[in-house]
Amino acid sequence: MTVRAAVAADCLRVVAMSKAAHVAGKLPWNFSAVHADQLFQQSLDQADRVCIVYAPDGIARGFLLGYVAPSPMASISFARDFGWWIDPGHRGVAAGEMMDAFELWADQRNATFCCMAAMEANPRAGRIYERRGYARTETHYLKRL
Q1: Can you give the residue ranges of the N-acetyltransferase domain (predicted)?
Q2: Which CATH class is domain 3-131?
Q3: What angle do the packed helices 33-45 and 11-24 form, to 10 degrees?
Q4: For 38-64, what is the mean pLDDT?
Q5: pTM exceeds 0.70, yes or no
Q6: Helix (H) or strand (E) holding 11
Q7: Which among 8, 31, 52, 130 is least surrounded, fewest beta carbons within 10 Å?
Q8: Strand 77-86 to strand 62-70: parallel, antiparallel, or no bridges (unpaired)?
Q9: Sequence-distant (≥ 6) Cβ neighbours of residue 96 within 8 angstroms
């Protein structure tokens, strides 16, 4: 199987890919390997967190970190991604399988909706989501204080 739940041995690759995603997203804050590691560890330890990896050759070449949480505005819950990355040489084959795994995981935790983020630096992500039946619902704006 090329897509699976992450295991502890995937940590260094997921942290490295998290940094690549951070750089590619042109995020205006410094990357923190410590925080990426903590988020990964939580995905192993907490039932409401997950890390799905794409590992066609046994080495993680993509990750999708996510969580499920209740909505503060209604009696529903959302599954959301913390981050998603596929190494450039492995794109085009893993996205659908990774999203299938994330949606199944979310459904098993009774999530009402699945939400995926698309950074402005990667407009292709939005098209992937729309092909899978996701509707664009909001845009976020960021201002440094």
Answers
A1: 1-145
A2: alpha beta
A3: 130
A4: 97
A5: yes
A6: helix 11-24
A7: 8
A8: antiparallel
A9: 132
